[in-house]
Amino acid sequence: MQELVKPIASKYLSGDIRPGHGDAVLNVEAIDQPDNSWDVVIVSHVLEHVDDKLAVSEIYRVLRGNGKLIVMSPIIEGWNETYENPSITEPRDRLLHFGQADHVRYYGRDFRGRLESAGFNVDEFCGSGEECARFGLLRGEKIFVGTKQCA
User: Fold this and answer.
1) pTM confidence score
2) CATH number of the domain within which 56 lies
């Protein structure tokens, strides 16, 4: 993603909670950035690992009016609701329930509503075969674009 965005952005900052994995150490649940300071935030395969309500609220806070959240996350379209269970904490149990040892949920179709409840207007896109190859997307993966509503 960085290769696509960095050349066209006037300001670009990658963040990760792990030191050395981004330009800055950032916790998506408590983003150390000022309110209304970013035009775009890209979150690729992160929300299924964290407290998504906190994370989405923080992203909304740091975005300027009409700012964009671009998010990708595993979604089971056949499920109406997200499957999560906070009592499942052991990595082997998370692997069994959520498909990966460090996931805390599998999203269902209600994912859109979770973004909307934070205040975003949500659009979604699915890349073509050519776009998947070009941009490294999973086949059939949806890209959600949330736009922060202006006050």
Assistant:
1) 0.90
2) 3.40.50.150
